[in-house]
Structure to design on (293 residues):
């Protein structure tokens, strides 16, 4: 009887010790990693930094040089037991998570880079990287995204969309269309490559593609706190080494978008600008912290 009682007490203690309470918040980060951290020249340092950042869910764009097995090993080294990549080879999107991932859809058809839609702890995460070349393609891509998300949102689903949209938000219309240096850069690119590049409509940024996402509705996490407006995400000094020119070209194209219920749980949002993120990629990562419910 004594041995039985001791065994019961021991099992109870071990069971209690193994139960780790869920944290009060979930941290979500999106990062265009620039051909896997400057064609892997910054790979080791960036991997250590990602592990230190310790986001619960990490969406990535421009993942290169990895098939599924390779990417999952990278994710493991960064502190993630669960990871999914859209496609092997080059310019993929991917998702890493601390908790199990349920894949809903992986799609490249009719998209420039594609998307991955997954579910983690009851939240749908869609990671995408819209066309860097044509505004008409971006409109088509956001139409595809809207088609996937409307049924989920109609049922009250919690949704997060993140990625490099390659287009500004209409919130930033005055900033981007009032910037002659930025417009000249993109007008010149359009004129130099007329066969396959058309980023501007009548010489100005258009916002129909982005508006499709806002109309779902999704909330731009960078606009939730008016007292601390979102900071531009592109380029970094790695992308444009001259600080003055970098400032002239600076605009916001990396986003985390939240379904309305989740936007009410948002505790903080930031563009992560550090000495490290100036060097790892030509984009800065964006990070949102949400209260769990």
């Amino acid at each position: 009887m004594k041995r039985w009682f001791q065994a019961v007490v021991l099992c109870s203690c071990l069971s209690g010790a193994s139960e780790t309470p869920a944290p009060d918040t979930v941290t979500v980060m999106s990062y265009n990693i620039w051909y896997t951290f400057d064609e892997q020249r910054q790979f080791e340092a960036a991997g250590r930094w990602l592990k230190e950042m310790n986001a619960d869910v990490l969406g990535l764009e421009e993942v290169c040089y990895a098939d599924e097995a390779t990417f999952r090993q990278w994710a493991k080294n960064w502190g993630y037991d669960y990871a999914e990549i859209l496609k092997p080879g080059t310019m993929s999107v991917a998702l890493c998570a601390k908790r199990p991932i349920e894949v809903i859809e992986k799609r490249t058809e009719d998209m420039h880079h594609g998307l991955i839609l997954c579910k983690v702890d009851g939240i749908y995460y869609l990671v995408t990287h819209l066309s860097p070349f044509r505004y008409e393609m971006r409109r088509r891509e956001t139409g595809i995204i809207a088609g996937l998300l409307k049924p989920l949102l109609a049922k009250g689903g919690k949704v997060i969309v993140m990625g490099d949209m390659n287009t500004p938000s209409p919130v930033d219309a005055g900033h981007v269309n009032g910037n002659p240096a930025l417009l000249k850069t993109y007008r010149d690119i359009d004129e130099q490559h007329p066969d396959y590049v058309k980023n501007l409509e009548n010489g100005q940024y258009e916002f129909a593609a982005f508006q499709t996402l806002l109309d779902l509705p999704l909330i731009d996490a960078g606009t939730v706190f008016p007292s601390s407006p979102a900071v531009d995400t592109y380029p970094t000094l790695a992308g444009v080494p001259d600080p003055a020119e970098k400032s002239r070209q600076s605009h916001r194209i990396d986003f985390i978008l939240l379904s309305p219920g989740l936007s009410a749980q948002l505790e903080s949002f930031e563009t992560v600008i550090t000495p490290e993120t100036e060097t790892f990629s030509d984009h800065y990562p964006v990070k949102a912290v949400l209260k769990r419910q």
